[in-house]
Amino acid sequence: MKKRTFIKLCSAAMTIPLDSKLSAFASPEKLKNWAGNIEYSTDKVSSVDSVPEVQEFVRKQSNFKTLGTRHCFNRIADSTQQLLTTDFSSQSPMLDPAARTISVGPGVRYGTIAPILESKGFALHNLASLPHISVAGACITATHGSGVTNGNLATAVSALEIVNAAGDIVALSRKENPDIFPGALVNLGALGVITKVTLNIQPTFQIAQRVYENLPFSSLKQYMDEILSAAYSVSLFTDWRNRRINEVWLKALYDPAKPPIKQPKDFFGATPATKNLHPIAELSAENCTEQMGVPGPWFDRLPHFKMGFTPSAGKELQSEYFVPRKNALDAILAVERLHEQVSPRLMITEIRTIKADDLWLSPAYKQDCVAIHFTWKPEWPEVSRLLPIIERELAPYKPRPHWGKLFTMPPKELQPRYEKLPDFLALAKKFDPNGKFRNEFLDKNIYNAVG
Ligand SMILES: Cc1cc2nc3c(=O)[nH]c(=O)nc-3n(C[C@H](O)[C@H](O)[C@H](O)COP(=O)(O)OP(=O)(O)OC[C@H]3O[C@@H](n4cnc5c(N)ncnc54)[C@H](O)[C@@H]3O)c2cc1C
Protein backbone atom coordinates (compact mmCIF):
# COMPACT_ATOMS: atom_id res chain seq x y z
CA MET A 1 0.00 0.00 0.00
CA LYS A 2 1.34 3.42 -0.95
CA LYS A 3 1.95 5.93 1.82
CA ARG A 4 -0.75 8.30 0.60
CA THR A 5 -3.46 5.63 0.41
CA PHE A 6 -2.44 4.32 3.78
CA ILE A 7 -2.60 7.63 5.55
CA LYS A 8 -5.94 8.43 3.88
CA LEU A 9 -7.37 5.39 5.60
CA CYS A 10 -6.63 6.93 8.97
CA SER A 11 -8.93 9.36 10.68
CA ALA A 12 -9.38 11.08 14.02
CA ALA A 13 -8.14 9.33 17.16
CA MET A 14 -10.71 7.08 18.75
CA THR A 15 -12.25 7.29 22.16
CA ILE A 16 -14.15 3.99 22.27
CA PRO A 17 -12.99 1.59 25.04
CA LEU A 18 -10.82 -1.30 23.80
CA ASP A 19 -13.31 -4.10 24.40
CA SER A 20 -16.14 -2.46 22.55
CA LYS A 21 -13.81 -1.75 19.63
CA LEU A 22 -13.28 -5.49 19.29
CA SER A 23 -16.91 -6.30 19.74
CA ALA A 24 -18.17 -5.06 16.39
CA PHE A 25 -16.86 -4.59 12.89
CA ALA A 26 -15.54 -1.08 12.69
CA SER A 27 -16.77 1.86 10.67
CA PRO A 28 -15.30 1.99 7.14
CA GLU A 29 -13.13 5.11 7.45
CA LYS A 30 -10.82 3.97 10.29
CA LEU A 31 -7.55 2.17 9.76
CA LYS A 32 -8.32 -1.47 10.42
CA ASN A 33 -6.75 -4.89 10.26
CA TRP A 34 -7.36 -7.20 7.29
CA ALA A 35 -10.49 -8.75 8.77
CA GLY A 36 -11.91 -5.39 9.81
CA ASN A 37 -12.60 -6.49 13.39
CA ILE A 38 -9.87 -4.25 14.83
CA GLU A 39 -9.63 -0.50 14.53
CA TYR A 40 -6.14 0.62 15.43
CA SER A 41 -6.09 3.00 18.39
CA THR A 42 -4.27 5.85 16.72
CA ASP A 43 -4.56 7.69 13.43
CA LYS A 44 -0.86 8.56 13.47
CA VAL A 45 0.87 6.43 10.84
CA SER A 46 4.34 7.07 9.47
CA SER A 47 6.03 5.28 6.62
CA VAL A 48 9.75 4.66 6.18
CA ASP A 49 11.62 3.24 3.23
CA SER A 50 15.16 2.53 4.41
CA VAL A 51 17.12 1.37 7.44
CA PRO A 52 18.52 4.87 8.27
CA GLU A 53 14.94 6.20 8.17
CA VAL A 54 13.88 3.46 10.58
CA GLN A 55 16.75 4.32 12.91
CA GLU A 56 15.93 8.03 12.87
CA PHE A 57 12.26 7.30 13.49
CA VAL A 58 12.97 4.91 16.37
CA ARG A 59 15.27 7.41 18.09
CA LYS A 60 12.58 10.11 18.00
CA GLN A 61 9.71 8.00 19.36
CA SER A 62 8.91 7.05 22.94
CA ASN A 63 6.34 4.36 22.07
CA PHE A 64 5.05 2.88 18.79
CA LYS A 65 4.23 -0.33 16.95
CA THR A 66 5.26 -1.50 13.49
CA LEU A 67 2.61 -2.80 11.12
CA GLY A 68 3.12 -5.69 8.72
CA THR A 69 0.31 -6.62 6.36
CA ARG A 70 -2.26 -6.27 9.21
CA HIS A 71 -3.46 -9.88 9.09
CA CYS A 72 -3.56 -10.43 12.87
CA PHE A 73 -7.00 -10.69 14.44
CA ASN A 74 -6.09 -9.30 17.86
CA ARG A 75 -4.37 -6.14 19.15
CA ILE A 76 -0.79 -7.46 18.96
CA ALA A 77 0.09 -4.76 16.38
CA ASP A 78 -1.92 -1.96 17.95
CA SER A 79 -0.62 1.29 19.42
CA THR A 80 -2.34 4.17 21.15
CA GLN A 81 0.60 6.44 20.25
CA GLN A 82 2.04 5.85 16.80
CA LEU A 83 2.15 3.26 14.03
CA LEU A 84 4.94 2.64 11.54
CA THR A 85 4.83 1.00 8.12
CA THR A 86 8.02 -0.25 6.56
CA ASP A 87 7.37 -0.62 2.89
CA PHE A 88 11.01 -0.66 1.70
CA SER A 89 9.55 -0.79 -1.83
CA SER A 90 12.79 0.57 -3.28
CA GLN A 91 14.75 -2.48 -2.10
CA SER A 92 14.65 -5.78 -3.95
CA PRO A 93 15.02 -9.16 -2.24
CA MET A 94 18.65 -10.37 -2.34
CA LEU A 95 19.05 -13.93 -3.56
CA ASP A 96 22.30 -15.70 -2.70
CA PRO A 97 22.26 -18.97 -4.68
CA ALA A 98 25.62 -20.13 -3.28
CA ALA A 99 24.59 -19.66 0.35
CA ARG A 100 21.06 -20.84 -0.50
CA THR A 101 19.41 -17.86 1.15
CA ILE A 102 17.18 -14.95 0.25
CA SER A 103 17.19 -11.73 2.29
CA VAL A 104 14.14 -9.50 2.33
CA GLY A 105 13.11 -6.18 3.80
CA PRO A 106 10.41 -5.86 6.44
CA GLY A 107 7.25 -5.27 4.40
CA VAL A 108 7.87 -7.97 1.81
CA ARG A 109 5.18 -10.63 1.36
CA TYR A 110 5.73 -14.33 0.72
CA GLY A 111 3.70 -13.94 -2.47
CA THR A 112 6.27 -11.45 -3.78
CA ILE A 113 9.38 -13.54 -3.18
CA ALA A 114 7.94 -16.91 -4.19
CA PRO A 115 7.94 -16.30 -7.98
CA ILE A 116 11.44 -14.78 -7.75
CA LEU A 117 12.69 -17.93 -6.04
CA GLU A 118 10.88 -20.19 -8.49
CA SER A 119 12.36 -18.37 -11.50
CA LYS A 120 15.85 -19.19 -10.16
CA GLY A 121 15.00 -22.81 -9.31
CA PHE A 122 14.51 -22.37 -5.56
CA ALA A 123 11.75 -22.81 -2.98
CA LEU A 124 10.87 -22.29 0.66
CA HIS A 125 10.09 -25.34 2.79
CA ASN A 126 6.52 -24.29 3.49
CA LEU A 127 3.93 -21.51 3.32
CA ALA A 128 0.83 -20.49 5.29
CA SER A 129 -2.69 -20.85 3.91
CA LEU A 130 -2.22 -17.55 2.09
CA PRO A 131 0.78 -15.84 0.46
CA HIS A 132 -0.44 -12.30 1.22
CA ILE A 133 1.27 -11.92 4.62
CA SER A 134 4.59 -10.20 5.30
CA VAL A 135 7.62 -12.36 6.07
CA ALA A 136 8.51 -10.33 9.19
CA GLY A 137 4.95 -10.23 10.56
CA ALA A 138 4.50 -13.96 9.95
CA CYS A 139 7.75 -15.00 11.64
CA ILE A 140 7.09 -12.74 14.64
CA THR A 141 3.88 -14.66 15.46
CA ALA A 142 5.16 -18.17 14.52
CA THR A 143 2.83 -18.43 11.53
CA HIS A 144 2.76 -21.94 10.12
CA GLY A 145 1.57 -24.18 7.33
CA SER A 146 1.15 -27.92 7.76
CA GLY A 147 3.17 -31.14 7.59
CA VAL A 148 4.53 -33.49 10.22
CA THR A 149 8.08 -32.83 8.98
CA ASN A 150 7.61 -29.06 8.51
CA GLY A 151 8.45 -26.50 11.17
CA ASN A 152 6.66 -23.14 11.19
CA LEU A 153 7.73 -20.43 8.74
CA ALA A 154 10.16 -18.86 11.24
CA THR A 155 12.20 -22.08 11.29
CA ALA A 156 13.45 -21.15 7.79
CA VAL A 157 15.03 -17.93 9.09
CA SER A 158 18.82 -18.07 9.35
CA ALA A 159 19.49 -14.42 10.19
CA LEU A 160 17.73 -11.17 10.95
CA GLU A 161 18.42 -7.52 11.63
CA ILE A 162 16.50 -5.58 14.25
CA VAL A 163 16.63 -1.87 15.04
CA ASN A 164 16.49 -1.77 18.84
CA ALA A 165 15.06 0.96 21.08
CA ALA A 166 18.31 2.94 20.94
CA GLY A 167 18.05 3.01 17.15
CA ASP A 168 21.02 0.65 16.70
CA ILE A 169 21.03 -2.21 14.20
CA VAL A 170 21.42 -5.59 15.88
CA ALA A 171 22.38 -8.36 13.45
CA LEU A 172 21.69 -11.88 14.67
CA SER A 173 22.17 -15.25 13.02
CA ARG A 174 21.49 -18.82 14.00
CA LYS A 175 25.17 -19.61 13.45
CA GLU A 176 26.76 -16.65 15.26
CA ASN A 177 24.25 -16.18 18.09
CA PRO A 178 22.90 -19.64 18.93
CA ASP A 179 22.22 -18.57 22.54
CA ILE A 180 19.69 -15.82 21.78
CA PHE A 181 18.69 -16.29 18.13
CA PRO A 182 15.91 -18.79 18.99
CA GLY A 183 14.56 -16.22 21.45
CA ALA A 184 14.78 -13.23 19.14
CA LEU A 185 12.93 -14.70 16.17
CA VAL A 186 9.35 -15.28 17.35
CA ASN A 187 9.43 -12.01 19.28
CA LEU A 188 5.82 -10.72 19.09
CA GLY A 189 7.18 -7.34 17.99
CA ALA A 190 8.73 -6.75 21.42
CA LEU A 191 12.38 -6.37 20.41
CA GLY A 192 12.27 -3.60 17.81
CA VAL A 193 11.76 -3.03 14.11
CA ILE A 194 12.86 -5.95 11.96
CA THR A 195 14.57 -4.49 8.91
CA LYS A 196 15.96 -7.63 7.28
CA VAL A 197 15.08 -11.32 7.33
CA THR A 198 17.27 -13.98 5.71
CA LEU A 199 15.52 -17.21 4.78
CA ASN A 200 17.01 -20.58 3.97
CA ILE A 201 15.97 -21.83 0.55
CA GLN A 202 16.08 -25.20 -1.18
CA PRO A 203 15.80 -26.54 -4.74
CA THR A 204 12.33 -26.00 -6.16
CA PHE A 205 9.82 -28.82 -5.97
CA GLN A 206 6.38 -29.62 -7.25
CA ILE A 207 3.24 -30.53 -5.39
CA ALA A 208 0.10 -32.32 -6.54
CA GLN A 209 -2.92 -31.42 -4.43
CA ARG A 210 -5.84 -33.79 -3.95
CA VAL A 211 -8.98 -33.31 -1.89
CA TYR A 212 -11.10 -36.05 -0.34
CA GLU A 213 -14.56 -35.60 1.13
CA ASN A 214 -16.34 -37.00 4.19
CA LEU A 215 -13.71 -38.67 6.33
CA PRO A 216 -15.52 -40.34 9.25
CA PHE A 217 -14.28 -39.44 12.75
CA SER A 218 -14.08 -43.20 13.37
CA SER A 219 -11.15 -43.28 10.87
CA LEU A 220 -9.39 -40.55 12.84
CA LYS A 221 -9.74 -42.66 15.96
CA GLN A 222 -8.06 -45.60 14.27
CA TYR A 223 -5.58 -44.01 11.86
CA MET A 224 -4.74 -40.51 13.16
CA ASP A 225 -0.99 -40.72 12.52
CA GLU A 226 -1.38 -42.29 9.08
CA ILE A 227 -3.89 -39.59 8.06
CA LEU A 228 -1.84 -36.64 9.35
CA SER A 229 1.30 -37.91 7.65
CA ALA A 230 -0.31 -39.09 4.40
CA ALA A 231 1.35 -36.26 2.40
CA TYR A 232 3.99 -33.51 2.65
CA SER A 233 1.25 -31.20 3.98
CA VAL A 234 -2.16 -32.31 5.21
CA SER A 235 -5.13 -30.15 6.23
CA LEU A 236 -8.38 -31.46 7.66
CA PHE A 237 -11.41 -29.19 7.37
CA THR A 238 -14.51 -29.80 9.48
CA ASP A 239 -17.65 -27.95 10.54
CA TRP A 240 -17.97 -30.39 13.48
CA ARG A 241 -21.34 -31.53 12.13
CA ASN A 242 -22.13 -35.22 11.51
CA ARG A 243 -18.92 -36.58 13.10
CA ARG A 244 -16.91 -36.21 9.93
CA ILE A 245 -14.03 -34.28 8.42
CA ASN A 246 -15.71 -32.49 5.52
CA GLU A 247 -12.54 -32.20 3.40
CA VAL A 248 -9.02 -33.65 3.57
CA TRP A 249 -6.47 -31.64 1.57
CA LEU A 250 -3.39 -33.66 0.68
CA LYS A 251 -0.45 -31.75 -0.76
CA ALA A 252 1.92 -34.47 -1.96
CA LEU A 253 5.43 -34.07 -3.36
CA TYR A 254 5.41 -34.72 -7.10
CA ASP A 255 8.42 -35.88 -9.07
CA PRO A 256 7.93 -35.51 -12.85
CA ALA A 257 10.65 -38.12 -13.44
CA LYS A 258 8.61 -40.78 -11.68
CA PRO A 259 5.35 -42.37 -12.85
CA PRO A 260 2.31 -40.44 -11.54
CA ILE A 261 0.91 -41.57 -8.20
CA LYS A 262 -2.53 -43.13 -8.66
CA GLN A 263 -5.27 -41.52 -6.63
CA PRO A 264 -6.82 -44.14 -4.36
CA LYS A 265 -10.63 -44.30 -4.58
CA ASP A 266 -10.89 -44.50 -0.81
CA PHE A 267 -8.86 -42.51 1.73
CA PHE A 268 -9.64 -44.08 5.10
CA GLY A 269 -13.34 -43.94 4.21
CA ALA A 270 -13.25 -40.55 2.42
CA THR A 271 -13.98 -40.23 -1.30
CA PRO A 272 -12.10 -38.19 -3.93
CA ALA A 273 -13.56 -34.77 -4.76
CA THR A 274 -14.71 -34.50 -8.36
CA LYS A 275 -13.82 -30.80 -8.78
CA ASN A 276 -11.75 -28.09 -7.08
CA LEU A 277 -13.23 -27.20 -3.69
CA HIS A 278 -13.07 -24.24 -1.30
CA PRO A 279 -12.48 -25.27 2.35
CA ILE A 280 -16.06 -24.06 2.89
CA ALA A 281 -17.63 -26.27 0.23
CA GLU A 282 -20.49 -23.83 -0.49
CA LEU A 283 -18.05 -21.09 -1.57
CA SER A 284 -16.55 -20.85 -5.05
CA ALA A 285 -13.12 -22.48 -5.43
CA GLU A 286 -12.04 -19.75 -7.86
CA ASN A 287 -9.60 -18.21 -5.34
CA CYS A 288 -8.21 -21.61 -4.27
CA THR A 289 -5.01 -23.23 -5.48
CA GLU A 290 -5.34 -25.94 -8.13
CA GLN A 291 -6.40 -29.41 -6.95
CA MET A 292 -7.44 -32.67 -8.67
CA GLY A 293 -3.85 -33.91 -8.61
CA VAL A 294 -2.64 -31.39 -11.19
CA PRO A 295 1.04 -30.85 -10.35
CA GLY A 296 2.40 -27.35 -9.94
CA PRO A 297 5.15 -25.35 -8.27
CA TRP A 298 5.36 -25.37 -4.45
CA PHE A 299 4.19 -21.74 -4.06
CA ASP A 300 1.09 -22.36 -6.15
CA ARG A 301 0.00 -25.43 -4.15
CA LEU A 302 1.20 -25.09 -0.52
CA PRO A 303 -1.10 -22.12 0.26
CA HIS A 304 -4.82 -22.83 -0.04
CA PHE A 305 -5.45 -19.43 -1.63
CA LYS A 306 -3.96 -17.79 -4.72
CA MET A 307 -2.05 -14.53 -4.44
CA GLY A 308 -4.19 -12.41 -6.80
CA PHE A 309 -7.45 -13.16 -4.96
CA THR A 310 -9.05 -12.45 -1.57
CA PRO A 311 -8.05 -15.36 0.65
CA SER A 312 -10.33 -17.27 3.01
CA ALA A 313 -13.92 -16.06 3.46
CA GLY A 314 -13.33 -12.32 3.98
CA LYS A 315 -15.28 -10.97 6.95
CA GLU A 316 -14.37 -13.46 9.62
CA LEU A 317 -12.63 -13.97 12.94
CA GLN A 318 -9.98 -16.59 13.63
CA SER A 319 -8.70 -18.51 16.67
CA GLU A 320 -6.24 -21.38 16.84
CA TYR A 321 -4.92 -23.64 19.59
CA PHE A 322 -1.77 -25.80 19.46
CA VAL A 323 -1.67 -29.03 21.47
CA PRO A 324 0.95 -31.80 21.49
CA ARG A 325 0.48 -34.07 18.50
CA LYS A 326 0.33 -37.07 20.79
CA ASN A 327 -2.93 -35.60 22.18
CA ALA A 328 -4.40 -34.88 18.74
CA LEU A 329 -7.27 -37.34 18.97
CA ASP A 330 -8.29 -36.43 22.52
CA ALA A 331 -8.15 -32.71 21.72
CA ILE A 332 -10.23 -33.15 18.55
CA LEU A 333 -12.80 -35.20 20.45
CA ALA A 334 -12.86 -32.55 23.19
CA VAL A 335 -13.87 -29.90 20.64
CA GLU A 336 -16.29 -32.33 19.03
CA ARG A 337 -18.11 -32.60 22.36
CA LEU A 338 -18.84 -28.87 22.03
CA HIS A 339 -20.17 -29.13 18.47
CA GLU A 340 -23.65 -27.89 19.32
CA GLN A 341 -22.15 -24.60 20.56
CA VAL A 342 -19.28 -24.37 18.06
CA SER A 343 -20.95 -25.19 14.73
CA PRO A 344 -23.53 -22.35 14.68
CA ARG A 345 -20.76 -19.74 15.09
CA LEU A 346 -18.30 -21.39 12.76
CA MET A 347 -17.42 -21.01 9.11
CA ILE A 348 -14.87 -23.84 9.18
CA THR A 349 -12.23 -25.52 11.34
CA GLU A 350 -8.83 -26.52 9.96
CA ILE A 351 -6.59 -29.07 11.65
CA ARG A 352 -2.87 -29.03 10.76
CA THR A 353 0.45 -30.34 12.10
CA ILE A 354 3.66 -28.46 12.93
CA LYS A 355 7.03 -30.01 13.66
CA ALA A 356 8.69 -29.17 16.99
CA ASP A 357 11.23 -26.32 17.02
CA ASP A 358 13.57 -24.51 19.40
CA LEU A 359 12.06 -21.01 19.14
CA TRP A 360 11.32 -19.82 22.68
CA LEU A 361 7.87 -18.30 22.10
CA SER A 362 6.80 -20.67 19.33
CA PRO A 363 3.68 -22.68 20.21
CA ALA A 364 5.60 -25.67 18.78
CA TYR A 365 8.56 -25.10 21.15
CA LYS A 366 9.97 -28.56 21.88
CA GLN A 367 6.74 -30.33 20.89
CA ASP A 368 5.34 -31.72 17.67
CA CYS A 369 1.93 -30.08 17.49
CA VAL A 370 -1.47 -30.36 16.02
CA ALA A 371 -3.18 -26.98 15.61
CA ILE A 372 -6.98 -26.73 15.78
CA HIS A 373 -8.07 -23.59 13.98
CA PHE A 374 -11.48 -21.91 13.89
CA THR A 375 -12.66 -19.48 11.23
CA TRP A 376 -15.60 -17.83 12.98
CA LYS A 377 -18.48 -15.79 11.66
CA PRO A 378 -17.91 -12.12 12.53
CA GLU A 379 -19.92 -12.45 15.77
CA TRP A 380 -17.44 -11.42 18.47
CA PRO A 381 -19.90 -11.24 21.40
CA GLU A 382 -20.89 -14.88 20.86
CA VAL A 383 -17.39 -16.05 19.91
CA SER A 384 -15.87 -14.35 22.96
CA ARG A 385 -18.24 -16.34 25.18
CA LEU A 386 -17.36 -19.56 23.39
CA LEU A 387 -13.56 -19.29 23.48
CA PRO A 388 -13.24 -19.77 27.27
CA ILE A 389 -15.38 -22.91 26.96
CA ILE A 390 -13.12 -24.31 24.23
CA GLU A 391 -10.01 -23.30 26.19
CA ARG A 392 -11.38 -25.10 29.29
CA GLU A 393 -12.16 -28.24 27.29
CA LEU A 394 -8.65 -28.26 25.81
CA ALA A 395 -6.97 -27.38 29.14
CA PRO A 396 -5.83 -30.97 29.89
CA TYR A 397 -3.60 -30.70 26.79
CA LYS A 398 -2.15 -27.31 27.80
CA PRO A 399 -3.13 -25.48 24.61
CA ARG A 400 -0.99 -22.59 23.37
CA PRO A 401 -3.00 -20.04 21.35
CA HIS A 402 -1.81 -18.59 18.03
CA TRP A 403 -0.22 -15.23 18.90
CA GLY A 404 -1.94 -13.47 15.99
CA LYS A 405 -5.47 -14.79 16.49
CA LEU A 406 -8.24 -14.35 19.07
CA PHE A 407 -8.03 -16.02 22.47
CA THR A 408 -9.34 -15.36 25.96
CA MET A 409 -6.92 -17.48 28.01
CA PRO A 410 -5.79 -15.52 31.08
CA PRO A 411 -2.04 -14.75 31.31
CA LYS A 412 -1.73 -16.92 34.42
CA GLU A 413 -2.63 -19.95 32.28
CA LEU A 414 -0.76 -18.86 29.16
CA GLN A 415 2.56 -17.86 30.66
CA PRO A 416 3.54 -21.15 32.39
CA ARG A 417 3.09 -22.86 29.01
CA TYR A 418 6.19 -21.01 27.80
CA GLU A 419 9.12 -22.20 29.89
CA LYS A 420 11.48 -19.75 28.16
CA LEU A 421 9.31 -16.69 28.83
CA PRO A 422 11.56 -15.42 31.67
CA ASP A 423 14.57 -15.64 29.32
CA PHE A 424 12.60 -13.83 26.64
CA LEU A 425 11.67 -11.03 29.06
CA ALA A 426 15.35 -10.64 29.99
CA LEU A 427 16.22 -10.44 26.28
CA ALA A 428 13.46 -7.89 25.65
CA LYS A 429 14.78 -5.75 28.50
CA LYS A 430 18.12 -5.51 26.68
CA PHE A 431 16.57 -4.52 23.37
CA ASP A 432 13.91 -2.26 24.86
CA PRO A 433 14.75 -1.14 28.41
CA ASN A 434 12.04 1.56 28.59
CA GLY A 435 9.11 -0.10 26.85
CA LYS A 436 9.25 1.69 23.50
CA PHE A 437 7.80 -1.36 21.71
CA ARG A 438 5.29 -2.35 24.40
CA ASN A 439 1.53 -2.12 23.95
CA GLU A 440 -1.54 -3.31 25.80
CA PHE A 441 -1.40 -6.80 24.23
CA LEU A 442 2.21 -7.36 25.26
CA ASP A 443 1.72 -5.82 28.71
CA LYS A 444 -1.20 -8.13 29.41
CA ASN A 445 0.08 -11.36 27.91
CA ILE A 446 3.82 -11.41 28.47
CA TYR A 447 5.09 -8.49 30.58
CA ASN A 448 2.51 -8.90 33.30
CA ALA A 449 4.43 -12.03 34.31
CA VAL A 450 2.67 -13.97 37.01
CA GLY A 451 5.02 -15.57 39.49
C1 LIG B 1 -6.97 -14.93 5.89
C2 LIG B 1 -5.89 -15.27 6.87
C3 LIG B 1 -5.26 -16.49 6.79
C4 LIG B 1 -4.24 -16.82 7.70
N1 LIG B 1 -3.63 -18.03 7.59
C5 LIG B 1 -2.68 -18.38 8.50
C6 LIG B 1 -2.04 -19.65 8.41
O1 LIG B 1 -2.23 -20.41 7.47
N2 LIG B 1 -1.16 -19.98 9.39
C7 LIG B 1 -0.91 -19.15 10.44
O2 LIG B 1 -0.13 -19.54 11.31
N3 LIG B 1 -1.46 -17.93 10.50
C8 LIG B 1 -2.33 -17.52 9.57
N4 LIG B 1 -2.90 -16.28 9.63
C9 LIG B 1 -2.42 -15.35 10.67
C10 LIG B 1 -1.25 -14.52 10.14
O3 LIG B 1 -0.32 -15.29 9.48
C11 LIG B 1 -0.52 -13.84 11.30
O4 LIG B 1 -1.44 -13.07 11.98
C12 LIG B 1 0.68 -13.00 10.85
O5 LIG B 1 1.33 -12.49 11.98
C13 LIG B 1 0.28 -11.85 9.94
O6 LIG B 1 1.40 -11.12 9.53
P1 LIG B 1 1.25 -9.57 9.18
O7 LIG B 1 2.43 -9.12 8.45
O8 LIG B 1 -0.06 -9.32 8.57
O9 LIG B 1 1.33 -8.99 10.64
P2 LIG B 1 0.61 -7.75 11.40
O10 LIG B 1 -0.74 -8.17 11.83
O11 LIG B 1 0.71 -6.51 10.59
O12 LIG B 1 1.59 -7.70 12.64
C14 LIG B 1 1.88 -8.83 13.42
C15 LIG B 1 2.97 -8.55 14.45
O13 LIG B 1 4.20 -8.33 13.78
C16 LIG B 1 4.72 -7.05 14.15
N5 LIG B 1 5.47 -6.58 13.00
C17 LIG B 1 5.15 -6.66 11.70
N6 LIG B 1 6.18 -6.24 10.94
C18 LIG B 1 7.18 -5.90 11.80
C19 LIG B 1 8.51 -5.42 11.65
N7 LIG B 1 9.04 -5.18 10.45
N8 LIG B 1 9.25 -5.19 12.76
C20 LIG B 1 8.75 -5.42 13.98
N9 LIG B 1 7.51 -5.86 14.19
C21 LIG B 1 6.74 -6.10 13.11
C22 LIG B 1 3.52 -6.23 14.53
O14 LIG B 1 3.85 -5.14 15.36
C23 LIG B 1 2.72 -7.29 15.28
O15 LIG B 1 3.25 -7.49 16.54
C24 LIG B 1 -3.87 -15.89 8.72
C25 LIG B 1 -4.49 -14.64 8.77
C26 LIG B 1 -5.47 -14.32 7.85
C27 LIG B 1 -6.11 -12.97 7.90
Let me know the largest β-sheet: 9 strands, antiparallel
Rg, please? 21 Å
Helix content: 10-25%
Gross morphology is globular
Helix-strand makeup class: alpha+beta
Q: Give the ligands present.
A: flavin-adenine dinucleotide
Number of continuous helical runs: 13
Strand content: 15-25%
Average pLDDT, to the nearest integer? Answer: 91
Unreliable parts: 1-28
Number of strands: 19
Distance between the termini: 43 Å
The oligomerization state is single chain
Structural account:
It is a single chain. The protein is α+β, with helices and mostly antiparallel strands and 451 residues long. Helices cover 24% and strands 23% of the residues. It is built from 13 helices and 19 strands. The strands form 4 sheets. Strands 11, 12, 13, 14, 15, 16, 17, 18 and 19 form a 9-stranded antiparallel beta sheet that branches. The chain has a 5-stranded antiparallel beta sheet with strand order 4-5-9-7-8. Strand 12 and strand 13 form a beta hairpin. The longest helix is centred in the C-terminal third of the chain and has 15 residues, at 380-394. It starts with a helix and ends with a helix. Mean pLDDT is 91; it is low at 1-28. The site of flavin-adenine dinucleotide has 34 residues, from strand 2, helix 5 and strand 9.
